[in-house]
Amino acid sequence: MSWGRFWLMPDFGSDDYHRRLRDLQRSAALSGKEIDQDEQIDNLHRENRELKLYVAGLLQLLVNKEVLKANDVQELARLVERAEQETQRADSPNTSPDLEAIAKAARQAQS
Q1: How many CA atoms lie within 13 A of 49 on its CB side?
Q2: Of 54, 32, 26, which is closest to residue 62 (Cα–Cα)?
């Protein structure tokens, strides 16, 4: 029920009026939560992508400074890839683009 229709109701004070008011308030609260949840999910996806880029950059920096060996990073990428494949076996056999980027960075650091 819209706000305009709600205020045009002639039965102010009746039980039906109060029930409709509660329903309208509940509906407004739920739609706000859905928007908040969608926003939060979008923010989490964006932060997740940023963190993956930071990790890839950090690994590249550690390899360039010879703190880590490129082989260690490649092994880490293989371990993560295997774990991801085990959890997503039913969904998709494709490798994550982020893992591919880490493996690529490790190969580049090796050369």
Answers
A1: 6
A2: 54
Q: Is 101 left (phi over 0), alpha (psi -120 to 50) or beta?
A: alpha
The 10 Å Cβ neighbour count of residue 106 is 24
Query: What pTM value is reported for the model?
Result: 0.46
Tell me the per-residue pLDDT of 72-83, one tens digit each, with 9 for 90 and over.
888 888 888 888
Instruction: Show the low-confidence residues of the chain (pLDDT under 70).
Output: 1-14, 29-35, 89-95, 111
Instruction: Tell me 68's DSSP state.
Output: S
Query: Looking at beta carbons, which pairs linking 87-95 to residues 24 or more positions away fall under 8 Å?
Result: none
